[in-house]
Write a structure and sequence with these properties.
This protein is mainly alpha-helical. It contains two helices and no strands.
Length: 72
C-alpha cells in the first residue's frame, strides 16, 4: 500500500468519525431515555475511527511521496 492509499483511507476514516460525532451530538439533545448509552456508543466508535485515521496518517508520513514517472 502506498502513501496515497493510506491518505485516502485516513480521509475516509475521518469522515466516518465526523458522522459518528454528529450522531452522538444528536443523541445528546434527544428526549430518548436511553440517550446516554447511545451517546457513549457513538462517541466510542467515533474515537476508534479517529484513531484509525491517525494511524493511516502516521504511516503515510513515513512513506515516500508517490511520484508519477513519465514512461520513455
Amino acid at each position: 500500500m502506498d502513501r496515497e492509499q493510506h491518505l485516502k483511507l485516513a480521509d475516509s476514516a475521518v469522515t466516518r468519525a465526523e458522522r459518528l460525532a454528529g450522531d452522538a451530538e444528536r443523541y445528546v439533545t434527544s428526549h430518548d431515555p436511553n440517550r446516554y448509552s447511545q451517546v457513549q456508543r457513538y462517541a466510542e466508535a467515533g474515537a476508534v475511527w479517529a484513531d484509525i485515521a491517525r494511524t493511516h496518517t502516521a504511516i503515510a508520513a513515513v512513506l515516500p511521496e508517490t511520484v508519477d514517472t513519465p514512461e520513455d
